[in-house]
From TrEMBL:
SUPFAM superfamilies linked to this entry: Dimeric alpha+beta barrel
GO cellular component: cytosol
Official protein name in the record: Lrp/AsnC family transcriptional regulator
Pfam family, one: AsnC_trans_reg
Residues in Transcription regulator AsnC/Lrp ligand binding domain copies: 7-76
Signal peptide: none
One Gene Ontology biological process: response to amino acid
GO molecular function, one term: sequence-specific DNA binding
InterPro entries, A to Z: Dimeric_a/b-barrel (IPR011008), Tscrpt_reg_AsnC/Lrp_C (IPR019887)
Lineage of source species: Bacteria, Bacillati, Actinomycetota, Actinomycetes, Propionibacteriales
Domain of life: Bacteria
């Protein structure tokens, strides 16, 4: 699994709508509204590195109200949580 953290600057008047639309994109696991220089942070988890090119530039960046994005790809996860198992719940084998 490939994980990317996407920092999103959005039109301030549209932050809730932007967050909902980004969260609905396949491959986006979570969207957080945050304080500071950003408006939203999206966690993108996909099977293959190439899938990021579909999720982020083709979908996230095209949501009306997204002003700009900055993407950070994770190399390793340092966590006691089994993220792979958590995100496979409810999925059929082979999907």
């Amino acid at each position: 699994m490939v994980t990317a953290i996407v920092f999103i600057k959005a039109d301030v008047a549209r932050i809730p709508e932007v967050a909902e639309q980004v969260a609905a994109i396949e491959g986006v696991s979570e969207v957080y509204s945050v304080t500071g220089g950003l408006d939203l942070i999206a966690m993108v988890r996909v099977a293959h590195h190439e899938d990021l090119a579909t999720v982020i530039p083709d979908h996230v960046n095209r949501v009306p109200g997204v002003v700009s994005t900055e993407t950070h790809i994770a190399f390793r996860a340092y966590s006691s949580h089994d993220l792979e198992a958590a995100f496979s719940l409810g999925q059929e084998d082979g999907i």
